[in-house]
Amino acid sequence: MNEKEAIAHYNQGIEFQNKNEHANAVKAFNKAIELIPGYIDAHHVRGFSYQCLGEFEKAISDYDMVLYNHKDSWGAYFTRGICFNRIGNIAKSLDDFAKAIELNPSNDHIYFNQADSFMRKQDYNSAIKALEKTIKLNPENVDAYNNLGCSYDRINEHDKARELYYIAIKKDPNNIDSHMNLADSFSNSGEFEKALKEYDVVLKIDPNSAYAHYEKSWAYSYSNKQEKAIEESTKAIMLDVNNSKYYEARGQFYNKLEKYENAITDFNKALEIDPNMSKGYLNRGLAYDLSGNRDEGIKNYNRVLELQPDYFEAFVNRGAAYQFKGNFERAIEDYTKALDLRPDYWAIYENRAGVYELQGNKTKAMQDRATAEKLKKENPVNDRNRFLSNK
Fold first, then answer.
1. Domain spanning 1-105: CATH superfamily
2. 8 A C-beta contact, residue 234 and residue 263
3. Vertex 82, ends 81 and 85: CA angle to 5°?
4. What does pTM read for this prediction?
């Protein structure tokens, strides 16, 4: 009797799964397992429903049960690997994907998800190999072309990346991810006009894409068109009024126009939505700081460092604020902490040299300027002595 009832609940759970009613599916599978403890098939499918509900730890427990009894279940290794990926245990996810591939080497989905774990690990060369295998097994997998392009972008092979995005677009002209990736690739390499054209393509496909307006706003900002950036970030906000990063971005654009009151209003809103947003405090601090309110600036930098004790830009900005206030010891202390984090950043040596000069310590000032000159030849780009925290 128990067996028939258990099977009936199991079948009911499958029906719920087919309708994407995973909470109800879990209830049905629970009843099946209560009637037959150790019902492996029920554990397996319940694991999938937990996975779909985002309850990854519970899903992992079910897959553990399956694998304890069926060590050759490639499907359980595969789905458990996905769950480990989602909870950030990349090492275990890669172990599971490797085992799944060993048991089923011709399934493109395993390689695709394995590549995602490699990308999260920032092992882009391994991701590239896994995605090439994915495409070999399934040449129509548009997402694989997109991710392969992203991996090449991460190792600065932008031409190769764009070739792959164009292949993805040819296969699916309305794939927003493909156009967004292509636009981001152009933007990240400073080709902002091309990026803006691609963001426009995205917005033609989906006029309500707040994220596209947000990314477009940054392309304008990096092109030194802050008014246009504000227009686009405002459109993003109108489409998604509860997204903290859209307010924070617009605040940065106001900062760049020296409209500090407007900037502070936006940073306040961003921090109301997300009270733990470190860069919101950093950039609000800068707005206060540059408008002459050094003390409020320092309070905000302090908050950044409470949230992230190794936030390089916060030490630099707080050091500059202390320098303007005439608190040279604290300024030197902060610049030194910044250099502990980024010893190759020559501009901070120049900042600290300036403070040493104000103290009358010519020897240390000369040492820092000499170090700055040496590093400047190696890396001439890092010439800012005060920071906005960008995207």
1. Tetratricopeptide repeat domain (1.25.40.10)
2. no
3. 90
4. 0.84
